[in-house]
Amino acid sequence: MPKENKVKSEIITAARGLIYEQGYLETSITDIMRNADVGKGQLYYYFDTKKEIGMDVLEQLDQEWRADLIGEILAPQRPATESIKLMFEWLLDFHQEQDHYYGCPIGNVIIEMSNKDEDYRLLLKNLIETWESELDAKLMQLEIRDTDISAEYIISTLQGAIMLTKLDETNRPLERAISKLSTQLNIV
To answer: What predicted TM-score, i.e. pTM, was given to this entire model?
Structure first.
């Protein structure tokens, strides 16, 4: 990786960690510079504003979720039961690997920024709508008879449980939600 791209990548990585841990609004340019170990000139060479950095962080997360969750886990050729189990494992694994309970990197920004910035809201809305659409396709394959069980219901349940992991400082709410959803979907 050329040195220029490496510095930009380090800035995005530093910002991503800070935004995840303390939120976008609480993350300052100074925090990002300190964590990326770059000077003001280096940071402003790549980014004109904090918003540009934040959008790059979200676009990176968006690309990762689209590759991992949408393209791999919920891939059309993968059987529905397997896809949904893998989705649950993917979410749980991410949260079990964390040292602290910061919540969902996407969900946190949705809560914090969706009513404050239209660019953030639209990018996040598009990602969630894509997730819902792909998950709904899997639910149709399962031929779920309970019309209350939709992708929106599942995603809302998971995001709510992830929020409670922050409050409880344990993954138990997410584990219980996944167990309950698995039972409702008859994929245990």
So the answer is: 0.91
The average pLDDT across 108-130 equals: 95
Q: How far apart are CA 95 and CA 118, in angstroms?
A: 28
Q: Answer yes or no: are the C-beta atoms of 144 and 156 closer than 8 Å.
A: no
Which tens digit of pLDDT belongs to each residue from 67-77?
Answer: 999 999 999 99
DSSP code string of 125-180: HHHHHHHHHHHHHHHHHHT---TT--HHHHHHHHHHHHHHHHHHTSSHHHHHHHHH
Which tokens hold the place of 60? 């990176």
Angle at 93 between CA 91 and CA 96, to 5 degrees: 110
Helix (H) or strand (E) holding 34: helix 29-36
Whether the pLDDT of residue 1 is over 60: the answer is: no
Q: What is the CA radius of gyration of the chain?
A: 18
Kindly state the tokens that stand for 29.
Answer: 């340019």
Dump pLDDT digits (tens) for 93-106: 999 998 899 999 99
- What rounded mean pLDDT belongs to the chain? 94
Tokens linked to 146: 């309970």
Do residues 93 and 55 make contact, with C-beta atoms less than 8 angstroms apart? Answer: no
Burial class, 78, CB count within 10 angstroms (exposed 0-12 / middle 13-18 / buried 19+):
middle
